[in-house]
Structure formats: C-alpha cells, structure tokens
Design goal:
NAD(+) binds at residues 183-190, 206, 273. The chain has helices spanning 21-30, 45-50, 52-69, 85-109, 166-169, 186-197, 217-229, 322-336, 365-370, 386-390, 419-431, 436-441, 451-461, and strands at residues 8-15, 35-39, 113-116, 118-123, 126-130, 135-145, 149-151, 163-164, 178-182, 201-205, 233-235, 238-245, 250-256, 259-265, 267-270, 274-276, 309-311, 350-352, 357-362, 375-381, 397-403, 409-416. The protein is of the alpha/beta class and 469 residues long.
C-alpha cells in the first residue's frame, strides 16, 4: 500500500468485498466510474469464504454420504461406507478458492483497484485505509458501505475451540460424535442437517415455539419430519443458560418446560443471529441515521442521509441474504451513475438448504390476506410427479398464492428436492406480473420437477390433470 501524506483520489470507494461490495464495485466500474474497493480480511466476504458457499459444499458432502448409506429402496446396497473428512474439507476449500480467485480476477478485469486494510471515515469525503504496516488517506466522491455482518455471541457462550459459530463449524477437523446447535434458524438447521447426514448425533435448542421462523408451518413440518428421521432432536421453547467446557467436550445447561436440564456433546454451535459490522469504522464522525441495532437507514436507492454515502447488504434493514446484497449493490452503483434505479423487494426469494429444501418468494397466503387480498391458494404434491418419484424424493409440494379476481400470482412456496432452483420461475412470474394461467399455459418439459409448478397453477384454475379436484 502506498504510504504518504497526500490523499489518493477515487470516484467511488466500496468498503467490503462480499457479494454486495464486489458486485457494486464491478457495476460501478461498468458505468465508467473510477472504483476502489477495500477489504480487511478476504475477497468474497463471509458468503464465499465462510458462509453460503462452503456450507453448501459441506451440505452436498453430507447428502452424498447419507445417500450412499441409505439407497436400499433403489437397489443400491453399499457396505462399510466411510468418509475421509480431511478430503471432504479439502473439497470444500477448493470450491472456495476457485470462486474467490474468480472474484478477484473479475475485479481486476473491470479495472477496480483492490486495497487490503481497514477503512476509517475521517469525514464524508475522506477515509484512512490502514493495514498492519501503514495508513493512506483516500478522497472519494461517493462511498458504498458493504461491510456485512458477524455472528452474535451470547455472553454465557463465548466462542472457543468447543463453543463455535458457523465459521468454526465449517472448519472442524473431525465429525462430531455429538453436536448441540443453539438456534433453529436457517444457519443452525442447515449445518445441523449437514452434520446429521455425516453421522453426528444432533440436538437443536430453539427459544421460539418452532424452528425456521419465516417459513410456513406446512413447509417446516416436512423438514421436521426429515430431521426426526435422521435422529435429530429438536427442543423448542428452550433457553440456553450456560456451558462448561473440557478438553474433550462441552456440557450445556438449558431450561425447557420449567425444568433445568443438561446435554453433553463434543461441540456446541451457536447460531442466534448476526450483527451488522458498522462499528469501529468511524461512522460516528458522519452522523449517519442508524437504528439501535446498528443498521444504517437508507432510501430506495440505498442512499443514506448523507447524499454521497450509500449502504447495502447486512448493514441495512431487511433479510440478511447474499442475493439481496448483490441486488442492492447494483442499485447503489447505478444511482451514483445518475440512473433512476430503485430497490423493489416484491420478488426476493428466501431459500433454506435443509432436507428437503425450502424456498419462498412474494407473499404467503397469510401475508396476502393481511394485506387485504382475496386469494386462491393451490398446492400440488411432489408425490404425484414422475420425476420426483424417480428421484425417490416424493416429500413436499408447490403452493401458489394468487389473486382470486384475476389469477395474478402474489407468492409461491416450495418444499422439496430442488426447491432452491425451482423458486426462480415463480420469482420471474411475480416480477413480470404473470397469472397462474400464464404458468399453466407454459409448456414444461416432461419429466421434470418444474412440472409441479405448472400442475399447481392448474389446481389454482380448477383444472388439475394429475390429482383429483
């Protein structure tokens, strides 16, 4: 890094290189801006390095291992199936390395200047970029804050070698014999499912009445059924009190049903939410409007109350999703370029890579009714689909929520194999203002899981072919 007293000038400074930051930087460069991006840890941020991507790689490993042991129904009997966990971790790390290297190449290919270090705001046009050895002042016309979030640490569960967060869970050197997961949200349930597939005895402690808040109970009930089949114990309305740690494991104390109980395990994974990274970067010097939780307030162009400073991703309100951050990054970059782009979260999907997968977009039936719509809710089961039966994956359904008066699609929910990919069709349909008739009249290839969406649309029209009306 250049050291000196003279400020270096740039058009747009992006702080953070996660899926929000690097996308914002590339899009800004495409509009002709001179762009500088600063990253204090690793290119690609949490998602690519220790979040979305490595967790899905580990989930994939778990699926392969579980299928190798339990495919008797399909005539496949494997004896003495084993897993080389060191090799599995190497596979995961290889996926991460390939993607993060690709992101760095994309930034360089778009002539984005990459800086390593921490950014500290001096004023609304100036930052100091600092690393271990030096500091350099940068002057910018516009800045985009994309610093992401970090796991919440419970005071009575300080992170150690045995009390781990999601990052620690993805870096274990061994498959735990027993694993306790505190928090039944999407991160805890995904990682708990992955390790259950790898052979761990998993217990999930959730303080709320149910796991996977945000998804309909019709959907989560199928996931809970799958967890039970894997031997995962889910304890709801449970309050984690404390942990005692030894060299070989942990003892967790929790309260449920008015009783205090203990559980022993090799590790305890704490997944009770994430906190925005908006501290220790000098934001107090700017007098930004912020919430009590440390979230930065922005308008529909991701602009803060300071006109030349923008914020995206986990540091602003809304779902903490990588694709939301990327979307906002494009909006902010285009707004800086003078375009009229604005955020519109009408069709932002939410996906959970459980077993089976969960996916939702638009309004649920309950939300639509709350907003005053008279709706039709139509479901079609995976069990009546040829491709699902051929995959031995018959659990689940597609549900479409449409406006009763004209069939306008308001929302869709999918639970089942491939839900994470199937939800894109429904997102496009909502974004394009399509009706259930449009979906039903679209010819879907046979035999595919996508046909389930078409069949659900036919149910909504009252003309189902493959189930009795």
């Amino acid at each position: 890094m250049v050291v000196g007293d003279f400020p270096i000038e740039t058009d747009t400074l992006v702080i953070g290189s996660g899926p929000g930051g690097y996308v914002a930087a590339i899009r800004a460069a495409q509009t002709g801006q001179k762009v500088t991006i600063v990253e204090k840890e690793y290119i690609g941020g949490v998602c690519l390095n220790v979040g979305c991507i490595p967790s899905k790689a580990m989930i994939s490993v778990g699926h392969r291992f579980e299928e190798a042991q339990h495919s008797d129904d399909m005539g496949i009997v494997a004896k003495e199936v084993s897993i080389n966990f060191e090799k599995a971790q190497a596979f995961k790390d290889g996926v991460v390395k390939k993607l993060t290297g690709g992101v760095e190449s994309l930034l360089k290919g778009n002539k984005v200047e990459i800086l390593r270090g921490e950014a500290y705001f001096v004023d609304e046009n100036t930052v100091r970029i600092m690393d271990e050895d030096s500091a350099q002042t940068y002057k910018f016309k516009n800045a985009i804050i994309a610093t992401g979030s970090r796991p919440v640490e419970i005071p009575s569960f300080k992170f150690t070698d045995r009390v781990i967060n999601s990052t620690g869970a993805l870096a274990l050197k061994e498959i735990p014999g027993k694993l306790i997961v505190i928090g039944g949200g999407y991160i805890g349930t995904e990682l708990g499912t992955a390790y259950a597939n790898l052979g761990s005895e998993v217990t999930i402690l959730e303080g709320a009445p149910d796991i996977l808040a945000g998804f309909e109970k019709q959907m989560t009930s199928i996931v809970k059924k799958g967890l039970k089949k894997k031997g995962v114990e889910v304890i709801t309305k449970a309050s984690a009190k404390g942990v005692e740690e030894t060299d070989s494991g942990v003892t967790v104390t929790y309260e449920a049903g008015g009783e205090e109980k203990t559980l022993e395990a090799d590790y305890v994974l704490v997944t009770v939410g994430r906190r925005p990274n908006t501290d220790e970067m000098g934001l107090e010097e700017l007098n930004l409007n912020m919430s009590d939780r440390g979230l930065i307030e922005v308008d529909k162009q991701c602009r803060t109350n300071i006109p030349n400073i923008y914020a995206i991703g986990d540091v602003v309100a809304g779902l903490q999703l990588a694709h939301k951050a990327s979307y906002e990054g494009k909006i902010a970059a285009e707004a800086i370029a003078g375009e009229k782009s604005e955020v519109d979260y009408l069709a932002i999907p939410a996906v959970c890579f459980t077993d089976p997968e969960l996916a939702s977009v638009g309004l649920t039936e309950e939300q639509a009714k709350t907003e005053g719509f008279e709706v039709t809710a139509a479901k079609f089961p995976f069990g009546a689909n040829g491709r699902a039966l051929a995959l031995n994956a018959s659990e689940g359904f597609v549900k479409l929520v449409s406006r009763k008066s004209d069939g306008l699609l308001l929302g869709g929910q999918i639970v089942g194999a491939g839900a994470s990919d199937m939800i894109a069709e429904l997102g496009l349909a909502i974004e394009a203002g399509m009706t259930v008739e449009d979906i039903a009249m679209t010819i879907h290839a046979h035999p595919t899981l996508a046909e389930i969406t078409m069949e659900a649309a036919e149910v909504a029209l009252g003309t189902p072919i493959h189930i009795i009306k």
